[in-house]
Amino acid sequence: MKLVLLSRDLMLTSRVDGVANQKGYTISHVADSASAISAVADDDCQLLLVDLQLPGLDILTLVEQVRGTKGSEVRIVACGPHVHENRLAAARQAGCDLVVTRGQFDREADTILA
Predict the structure, then answer these.
(1) How far is the C-alpha of 50 from the C-alpha of 36, rounded, in Å?
(2) Largest Cα–Cα distance of the chain, in whole Å?
(3) pLDDT tens-digit profile of 44-70?
(4) Which of 27, 37, 75, 78 could join 91 via S-S bond, C-beta 3.0 to 4.6 A?
């Protein structure tokens, strides 16, 4: 399985890399929405993990473009700090399959990436 991580956060990247390596997943790291959409177009891609702290992120547009490219074939998971309630709510409204806080992601990364 291939997953795409849209983030510039080294701590999140490290956490995702660790879990992905344990599970034998291929991971692509991207730092902007355009690169994420290109990476998700890969037939093997099954998961897009979005860091809601990414500067300039328009989660609604990103989700619309991914869904337009891959439909519901790709699961979209968004995570962000619990104090960023508006960003978490925007991700839910945009249609992400799962929206979690960073704390939840840290505790449940194995399950979330399964």
Answers:
(1) 9
(2) 35
(3) 999 999 999 999 999 999 999 999 988
(4) 78
Closest by Cα among 89, 48, 54 to 71:
48
Predicted confidence band of residue 33 (pLDDT cuts 50, 70, 90): very high
Angle between helices 102-112 and 10-23 (to 10 degrees): 20
Query: Average pLDDT, whole number, for the chain?
Result: 95
Q: What phi and psi values does residue 69 have, to the nearest 5 degrees?
A: -85, -45
- Asked whether the CA dihedral 64, 60, 32, 102 is positive or negative, the reply is negative
Prediction pTM value: 0.94
Contacts for 3 with CB less than 8 Å, ≥ 6 apart = 16, 20, 25, 26, 27, 28, 45, 46, 47, 48, 49, 113
- For the record, the structure tokens of 31 come out as 């730092």
Residue with tokens 């194995």: 110
Pairwise CA distance, residues 91 & 15, whole Å:
21
